[in-house]
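User: Could you check the structure of this?
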Amino acid sequence: MKKVFSILLLLALVSAGAFAQDFALSAGGGALLDYSSNNGMKSGSEYMGMSIFGIGGYGFLDATYAVLDVSFAYGSLTNVEKPTAVPSDQKDAGSQMVLGFSLMGKYPVDMGFATIFPLVGINYNFVLSQKDKDGNKFSDEPGNLWKESDLSQFGILAGVGGDFDISDSLYFRAQALFHLRFPSKYMKDMASLFKLLDSNISATYGMGPRIQLGVGYRF
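Assistant: Sure, the predicted structure tokens are below.
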């Protein structure tokens, strides 16, 4: 995790340096909502996995053409199975606590009433803990060879954001992003094991919206 954070910080500094003549620094924080479906395995038209609905808070450092944010979120997990429906009493798969790191490039355009900017970048969601619906930890399950960090996922973010001035220094920020998550180590390992029974099985990519609302301060 330390290596991931160091790489993101280095990329942010390099991006800012490339546009040093227009450099301006601001920071802030707010609330986020992150939904991801299709996290699992598939074989043909059959799918088994879960959706993740996360809500939490984040802080960000903005360097005009690059923004680095760190988030903490609670995620509820829901079992999904197709074409066989999962009984309603088995859909609750538990919960996650996640520490997230994101680095995105941005290109601000002054619209007068607001500054609008497209965003594209990378994300890493580090799973701190995961529990089932009965409160049992993932790493404590009998026979489990994996740990919580093996559930962590890299991802790609793309979307648009806007800053709306409250004063000369304060602004309200809103971002709407599409989040594509790569399969976790755990899910890739499980898919490899199931290939012994079905050679068509593969791990899937999670995907869904990520909404962030916050307040920033220009230095």
